[in-house]
Known about the structure:
Active site: 65 (proton acceptor)
Helix content: 25-40%
Pfam families: UDG
Function: Excises uracil residues from the DNA which can arise as a result of misincorporation of dUMP residues by DNA polymerase or due to deamination of cytosine.
Number of helices: 9
Number of strands: 6
Strand order of the largest sheet: 3-2-5-6
Oligomer: single chain
Radius of gyration: 17 Å
Protein name: Uracil-DNA glycosylase
InterPro entries: UDG_fam1, Ura-DNA_Glyclase_AS, Uracil-DNA_glycosylase-like, Uracil-DNA_glycosylase-like_sf
Mean pLDDT: 97
Low-confidence stretches: none
Largest sheet: 4 strands, parallel
Amino acid sequence: MNVDIHNSWKPYLDEEFKKPYFKDLAEFVKHEYKHHQCFPKGSEIFNAFNHCHFNDLKVVIIGQDPYHGVGQANGLCFSVNDGIPHPPSLINIFKEIEKDLNISYPKSGNLMPWADQGVLLLNATLTVRAHQAGSHQNKGWEQFTDAVIKTISSEKSNVVFLLWGGFAKKKNKLIDTEKHSVLETGHPSPLSANRGYWFGNKHFSKTNSLLQQVGESVIDWKLE
Length: 224
């Protein structure tokens, strides 16, 4: 596995890449991609970091696993490639944005424009075997992405962390809440959303309000 990551991250993560667990992880990923169909494409594994540079980072959204269907995953959590039908969680994210900000529902589910504005769309696990959810969990990715969250917490200030669902909320312990803002709500999946744990959270307008309070430019959540 080539660690194709934007230069802005390297001073903070270079030590992580040298650790034994990461070398084992890289070997595992290389073997998986050679012998199985895996997602996202090898060149897109670090897309979240390549579109959201460290210096520009203002918001972190934490997901769990890449989509495991053909053509879906593009290296950003909750995001799909242009022309791909929107998965259920993404539909609910867009519905909440529609209500919260009065923005029309977008055609594309590609969240690159958010990443390019400083939103780190970070899955805890960055790769997956086709049609096998969770197949690359507990191989080292979580150790790496936890280190990323800790690094952001220690090296930056006034970042807004959006923790959606039980899995993401566990990452709260990695964040210094004295210098960062944390917004928590239910997961946007239909199971959680239909029980009333997602809709009405207003996380998108709240995020922009928090950014304004510290003199940062807001995120344009509109995709078209």
